Amino acid sequence: GVQTCALPIYGMQDQLGGPNGKKLNKTAFYEALHRAANSANGASHIQQSLKDWMGEEHQTDDILILGVQL
Length: 70
Fold this sequence. Notes:
Blueprint: E1 4-10, E2 16-17, E3 22-23, H1 26-37, H2 42-54, E4 64-69
Antiparallel strand pairs: 1-4, 2-3
């Protein structure tokens, strides 16, 4: 079967949002990765998860996530 690995290289966990305007926590980030790994288009799923988290907040930093499928 296909295996997917995603490495948060830079910036995603620094983005503010959620109900209290705080940084994205590791649990929420890993849940988004898990859902993305089980979807047909993982990158779009991660982008949408980030937009949902940020809500009205502005992006605070660049974001880089390295994904590999084997």
